[in-house]
Specification:
The protein is mainly alpha-helical and 235 residues long. The chain contains eleven helices and four strands; from the N terminus they run H-H-E-E-H-H-H-E-H-E-H-H-H-H-H. The chain is globular.
């Protein structure tokens, strides 16, 4: 994939706008953040904030913050139950309105993320990407992105990653504004929240294994690689 040299907007102005807009949003939305926090604490318990390691720019792993949307329900052997069991009606409402994403404004303010960019996927997704697909990590991940307004969780992994690459080839101010406006529309219309038949998005590795694009042996090896990366990042 040929990637052009970033323009003035992508190199300088984009980050300035991220800091200004996320800072203002954190102040203006403080009442909303507090109300959602109280509701999460009441309905789902502690912790209120869900923290998870994600690969950011240049594949540097950072902690991404979201409001908790699932319970900690476990089976007889102590293992966490499937996502669809732990995702409550309240949790689904948080996700469908994207209110669970609001704590990511802090990630944007402190420089982990941008307002617009490829969504930060899981580390265990990253290791299954091709070298070309991993080029999506050459820019800051975003609160929203071109893939999200092109289908969110309702498009295939191949289309999602291809769309991310299309975005990073040409990052412009007008393009970002259009993505933000389309994001607002999709949030209010609650479009493309989940993939067909699934409450939460399917991991890339699970998708590749299910569609026979990766062997069981390779699947296990890459899962082990992702765990090793997370252990290294935690030190």
């Amino acid at each position: 994939m040929k990637q052009g040299k970033p323009g003035v907007y992508a190199r300088y102005i984009k980050r300035i706008l991220d800091v200004l807009l996320s800072g203002c949003a954190l102040v203006v939305l403080t009442p909303v953040l507090l109300i959602v926090a109280v509701l999460v604490r009441t309905k789902l318990g502690s912790p209120v904030i869900f923290c998870q390691e994600r690969p950011g720019k240049d594949e540097k792993i950072f902690k991404m913050y979201k409001f908790r949307s699932m319970t900690d329900a476990r089976g007889e052997n102590g293992e966490l139950l499937p996502d669809e069991v732990r995702l409550t009606k309240f949790g689904r409402a948080l996700r469908s309105t994207s209110l669970d994403e609001l704590p990511e404004l802090w990630n944007i303010f402190k420089g982990d993320m941008s307002i617009v960019g490829p969504r930060p996927q899981l580390v265990r997704d990253m290791v299954f990407m091709t070298p070309e697909q991993r080029l999506r990590h050459t820019v800051m991940p975003g609160l929203t992105g071109l893939a999200q307004v092109s289908g969110r969780n309702a498009i295939s992994w191949e289309d999602k990653l291809a769309t991310d690459l299309r975005y990073i080839r040409r990052i412009t101010f007008l393009g970002d504004v259009k993505i933000v406006l389309l994001t607002v529309k999709k949030v209010f219309c609650r479009e493309d929240i989940s993939a067909d038949g699934m409450d939460t998005a399917e991991d890339l590795g699970d998708y590749l294994l299910r569609t026979a694009q990766v062997s069981e042996e390779a699947y296990q090896e890459l899962q082990a690689e992702s765990k090793a990366l997370l252990l290294t990042a935690g030190k």
